[in-house]
Write a structure and sequence with these properties.
The chain is of the alpha/beta class. The chain is 52% helix and 14% strand.
């Protein structure tokens, strides 16, 4: 069983883009779980909680979640980055990639590994 930290760009000035990223994260996390693996989807967890903290800006949200992310990243064996628009520019995704690479843990893009989670016939 694989233990996967699922990364996705999150913050954006357009709430529709943020919501789309949340939905994509949920869909991919569900795909991974259905394949029988363990996943921690940071965006899936944090997005609903962020919604009840409207007083926090993007920087404050990042600072709040950084230690939580570190705890879960440490518990996972590999990182999968959802490579949708904005992933290269995301400071959070860059931090997560660096964390896994420094520990010599597998780091992949979803577009490269999605086939590994396809339902078995």
């Amino acid at each position: 069983m694989r233990k996967i930290f699922l990364a996705c760009p999150y913050g954006n000035s357009d709430p529709a883009i943020v919501e789309h990223r949340f939905e994509v994260s949920n869909t991919i996390a569900a795909t991974i779980v259905r394949a029988g693996d363990v996943v921690f989807s940071q965006v899936s967890m944090s997005h609903p909680i962020n919604g009840v903290m409207p007083d926090l800006d993007k920087v404050a949200i990042g600072a709040l979640w950084a230690p939580v992310d570190a705890f879960f990243m440490d518990a996972m064996d590999e990182l999968i980055v959802i490579d949708i628009e904005g992933w290269r520019e995301s400071s959070g995704v860059a931090r997560e990639i660096a964390f896994f690479e420094q520990r010599r843990r597998r780091t992949s893009l979803w577009s490269e590994v999605a086939h590994e989670f396809a339902p078995k016939a």
